[in-house]
Each structure stands twice: as C-alpha cells, then as structure tokens.
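User: Show me a protein chain along with its predicted structure.
Assistant: Here is one chain, sequence first, then structure tokens.
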Amino acid sequence: MKRLCLIIIFLTSFAGSFAQSGNIYSAFSIGAGVGTTTVYDYVLAAQNKYAVNGTFSYNITPFFTLTGESQFGKFEGGDLTAFNMKYFYSTYAAATLHADLQLGELIDYGRSDFLYGLKDAYFGSGFGLLENSITYVQPISPNSNTLYNTINSSTNFLVPFVLGYDIKIFNDYDEPQIRLDISYTLNAAFGQGIDGYVTAAPVKFYSYFAVGVKYGFGPGKLYRKPIRY
C-alpha cells in the first residue's frame, strides 16, 4: 500500500512539473486581421486596396495549424492614362483552407537564441474559392477603338501560398494564448474573372499582406517539448 502511494505521488508530481514546463497549448484559435491586396497583371498597373479576414484554426501542434480563412475586400488595377487604357475595380469574397507549418516543428530551438527567434516563422498552402464582382471595367480602348472581352463577375479556384511570422504571447501558465500574426499570401486564381478581362492567361495572381491577432481557446493539448524557453 505504501509503495502504491509513493508511485501515485511520484506520477502526480511528474505530471505537474511537466505541465508547468510550458508544454500546454490550446486546441483552437480564432482571429481577425486587416491588410492590403494587389493584383498582378503584366498589362495592368498595380493598385493597392484594403481587405479584412477572419480565421478559425485547429492547432494540431503549437507550430502546425489547419486554418479556415475568409476574406472580404477590394481589387483595383490599371490606369486610364496608360497606353491600353485598361482599368477595373471590383469587390471580392474568398474562402480558403490552408495548412501552415512553423519552423519550430522542424528545428531544435532550445539551444540557440537565433533559432528560438526563428521558430515562429511559417509557410503554408491550401485551396479555396474566390467570388469576384466587377464594379467597373473599361471595355474599350479609346486610342484604337479596340473592344475588350470583359465579364462582370466570376468564380475562381484559388491556391494560396503563405509566408508569415506568428508572435506568441504567453499567459500566466506559459501557454501561447494570443498570437500576433504577420503574413504575406500570394494567391493563384484559376480563371478569367479576377480583373474583368478575358485573356489567354489561365491563371492570374493577387497578393494579400495582412496583420492580425488570434486568440487560443478550447481544451489544452500537450506538446512533446517546451514551447517557451
């Protein structure tokens, strides 16, 4: 009986010390952000517009997340004083699902201050859909009377390529409760409607540079090593 009591005390104290070492993190995160969009087209001058986003993440580990993201914003591109006088303005909504891997999952960040600072950098990719509604598109070139092939709305298959940095803010229990996020996403939009002009290019691109905040909640999960040193 005495031996059993000693084993229970040992296991309890070991579990308590393990939990106190900063290995616990929240299973889920919810967040929001704001940023700028830029449409890339070799014949359209780039213009920056604003967008907002919301996220819901399942934290597989503290450094590997599966995130559902919604975006709402504006696109603008072109210049009515340019040689082709192409110009468009539109409103879009997008929904994506992407997996993001931080370097902390891959490196031993407990032995180096440099690697510890690098552990929160991440990259990721996924897929989604973009609904684009063209508010205005210049349909004709006054210089040559060329009538452009244009559309007013479209649905595009989307592939995002994400780079970012996740600044973790720890609570009193050394859990990463709040995450300040800085990200740059290059989105490949398959289809013709992102700028309103139908061209031979099967893929068009836009970027979304954003800053945001995420809040962790839900049941605590145990990680294999301390998240914070």
